[in-house]
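Backbone-to-sequence.
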């Protein structure tokens, strides 16, 4: 009986101590993130490439008001080419569809999508968790540079028709300003390793070719493009702070 009374007294004392703790507060702190996102192209970009992957990272400073500023970037890559990205070398191919290298053999050529985005944005976290005011719905808008091209790899570099400056006439290097938007959720856990965000990210880019001559067109490519990318991003957050306050408290 004495043991039971002691346990009850201990628990009651613990509850009193917890009830005196303050609720977690919004905090200011910097952080780094790493992310992955599959992206679906739209607009003019969908005529050249299919679904791609994007591996990215960012530096964010979150203010205790839940406003934040971010510098971010992402590496774009994929292997789904179509439209004017297919048949790049038709004009220099044999009748059976091969490019002949300097040794008189069939050249091994691999093409793929490559690109990047680099920019910045501003956003706000709408707190929706009573015991975790630093977490919630994350929204942001921003802008930066979006670039994409066709990567051309010639095994052994033995096909001079597509090397060095000649390669530039085929790779369709394109870039321009892009607006971006993000909407999702962000969660900062009590432990520093359990922090993540996830949501939808959108890009609208006004781009054009940056090459002086396109061998396929037999002229400069002067088209003004609207390239779109839409994806679902998942990211891991590495916050720079000692420790988040305990998210559990009693009124």
């Amino acid at each position: 009986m004495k043991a039971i009374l002691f346990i009850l007294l201990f628990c009651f004392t613990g509850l009193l101590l917890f009830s005196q703790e303050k609720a977690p507060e919004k905090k200011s702190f910097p952080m780094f993130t790493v992310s992955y996102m599959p992206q679906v192209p739209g607009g003019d970009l969908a005529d050249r490439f299919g679904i791609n992957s994007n591996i990215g990272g960012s530096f964010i400073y979150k203010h205790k008001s839940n406003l934040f500023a971010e510098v971010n970037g992402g590496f774009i890559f994929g292997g789904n080419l179509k439209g004017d990205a297919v048949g790049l070398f038709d004009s220099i191919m044999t009748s059976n569809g091969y490019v002949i290298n300097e040794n008189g053999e069939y050249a091994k050529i691999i093409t793929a999508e490559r690109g990047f985005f680099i920019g910045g944005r501003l956003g706000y976290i709408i707190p929706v968790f009573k015991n975790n005011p630093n977490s919630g719905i994350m929204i942001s808008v921003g802008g930066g540079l979006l670039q994409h091209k066709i990567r051309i790899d010639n095994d052994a570099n033995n096909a001079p028709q597509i090397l060095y400056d000649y390669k530039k006439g085929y790779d369709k290097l394109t870039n321009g300003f892009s607006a971006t938007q993000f909407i999702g959720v962000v969660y900062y856990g009590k432990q520093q390793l359990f922090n993540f965000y996830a949501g939808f990210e959108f890009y609208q880019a006004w781009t054009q070719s940056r090459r002086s001559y396109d061998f396929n067109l037999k002229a400069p490519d002067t088209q003004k493009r609207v390239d779109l990318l839409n994806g679902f991003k998942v990211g891991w957050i590495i916050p720079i702070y000692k420790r988040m306050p305990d998210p559990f408290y009693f009124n």
